[in-house]
Predict the structure.
Amino acid sequence: MSRPEFSLAYLTAFGTPPARMVEIAAETGYDYVSLRLTPVTDHEPTFPFFTEPSVVADVKAHMADTGISVLDVELIRVGPDDDPADYGRFMEVASDLGARHLIMQLPDPDRSRAAERFAQICRMASPHRMTVDLEFIPWSTTEDLAAAVEIVTKADQSNGGVLIDTLHFARSKSSLADLEMLPEHLFNFVQLCDAPFEAPRTHEGLINAARTARSLPGEAGLDLRPLVEAIPTVPYSLEVPNDIMRKDLGVEEFARRVLRAGQTFLARDEAESAGSGQHR
C-alpha cells in the first residue's frame, strides 16, 4: 500500500505568505500545500492573488523548485445574496496554481437554492478539471454530513464532493454509519486534526477553537480511528490551527510536528486496521 500523502493547510501556517508556505512544506516533508485565496474573516492577513500576478508567479516558481503542488484552495462561500458568477477569477487563479480541489461553503437555509448554486460552481470548475468539495460546519446552515450530502446529491455533478473535516464531523455529531455508506467518489481529500473530547458549549467557543486551538492528530480526545477507517485512501490536509504552539515553536517547527503526528497516527491506524482485517 502506498504511503499517505499530506498537505500543509493554511490555518496550520496561518498568516504565512504563500511562497513561504511552499518552502516550509518542502523543508518539513509535506507533499502539498492548501492555500487560502480569499479571507474568511475581516481581521486576517490577505495576499493579492487576484490583483498582483507576481504573487502567483512566485508561488509557481517555488513549486517548480521544490516539487510541492497545490492540493486545494479556499474559500468559495455563497450565501443567499451572493452570485456564484463572481468566482470566475477565483477559478482562473486556482487553475493557474494547479489546484486539484476547491473548498466551498453554503451558508444558505434554502437547500434547493444551495444545490443549484453548488451545481453552478461545479460547472465553472469542470473545464479546469477541479473538484468542488462542500464543507459542513456545525454553526452554519449546512450543519452536518447529512446536509452536505443532500446538497451534493441534489446538484448531481460529477466533480462534486463532500469535505470531511474531522473536527467538524465530531462537533456536528454526524453519523458514522451514514459516512460508511457513502460512495467513494464523493471523497477527494480530508482535513485531519484532533481536539479535546468535550466541545465548547457556545457557537463563539466552537468557532474560536476551530480557528485557533486544534490539537495534533492522535494526541487529544476525538475518536478519529473509526472515522479515518470509514473514508477511502485520499490525501490528508493537516488543518491544525493552534496559535499558542505555532507562536512558541515557530511556523516551520510547528508544521514539522503536525506532520510527524499525522504520520504516526496513520501508521498506527494502518497497523491496527491490518491486524483486525478492517478496510474500506
Remarks:
- The two ends are 13 Å apart (CA to CA).
- Residues 251-276 form the longest helix (26 residues).
